[in-house]
């Protein structure tokens, strides 16, 4: 549209532009409340449903750890960080923390983010040599004026904060990488069973929501590649009035649709966590006929503690800890043919 027409249309629709807009119309704009930003109805909240912890995949121990931390009175953020740390420290998990698969050049680099019930958040990307990157992301949130630190800067910050430096490349991961190098596949097509990022959402005893997401990213990624997991709104999003969502799978596709933010916004408009996860998957598969080659999975929880999850391909599960029970739930999927 040409500029003049655009300005005219903008003023007709009441959308003030900086050029040619009077001070009073600017004031009107800031005073005007968005009709879309409040839930349609106030959710009935029964505090006896809390605490609750949910996480991606069948991470039984991690979810139990978070559930127990919540029961002992820890807040949602600290419980989520304790929970995901179980997988960050699990050497057998080749997609999170220590023991994660390296990039094509043999470097293990980790990504993580956290978001709390005040809407504060922190993230670290491309961090080598430190295992507990979700806890490091919390430090970024609390101790710096920033939201995200990358690479060397994040590593130096970890050192200053007293995190222990470690070699993240285990013998098993190195051997698998050396094997992979014999006939390297550079296409970003991934095995649908090979996404084990842990995204976790917790509601504590007070009904406050927070989350954490941590990963080593795609196996044999390009050096410097960062996926959705540490990106607030993509791998994780929490709004304490509405709920939270987390993602796992092909980060490039999740980022293009800002999946976790989308789910929370859909819930804000009165849609259930289940329907919101289905719609977020639908946004991807409806535009992208390559979906047969990659997995995307979402989990979500709303302020009332209702949960939902959905994915593209069969094989994804979600853990749910509630009333001292830690259950694994198989998740419905899109690709039924
Ligand atoms: C990423 N979402 O870096 C992550 C991948 C994943 O287990 O889920 N890996 O794109």
In short:
The chain is α+β, with helices and mostly antiparallel strands. The protein is built from ten helices and twelve strands. Bound molecules: N-hydroxy-L-asparagine.
Structure description:
The chain has 2 domains: 1-27; 50-330, 4-Layer Sandwich (Glutamine Phosphoribosylpyrophosphate, subunit 1, domain 1). The strands form 2 sheets. Strands 4-3-2-6-5-1-11-12 form an 8-stranded mixed beta sheet. A hairpin with a 2-residue loop joins strand 11 and strand 12. It is built from 10 helices and 12 strands. It has helices spanning 3-12, 23-31, 60-71, 76-88, 133-143, 151-160, 171-182, 251-256, 259-268, 273-285, and strands at 52-56, 110-115, 121-127, 148-150, 198-203, 209-215, 236-239, 243-249, 296-302, 307-311, 317-322, 325-330. The structure holds N-hydroxy-L-asparagine.
SSE diagram, text form:
Blueprint: H1 3-12, H2 23-31, E1 52-56, H3 60-71, H4 76-88, E2 110-115, E3 121-127, H5 133-143, E4 148-150, H6 151-160, H7 171-182, E5 198-203, E6 209-215, E7 236-239, E8 243-249, H8 251-256, H9 259-268, H10 273-285, E9 296-302, E10 307-311, E11 317-322, E12 325-330
Parallel strand pairs: 3-4
Antiparallel strand pairs: 1-5, 1-11, 2-3, 2-6, 5-6, 7-8, 8-9, 9-10, 11-12
Helix pairs in contact: 3-4, 9-10
N-hydroxy-L-asparagine is lined by residues 95, 195-197, 215, 217-218, 227-229, 248-251.
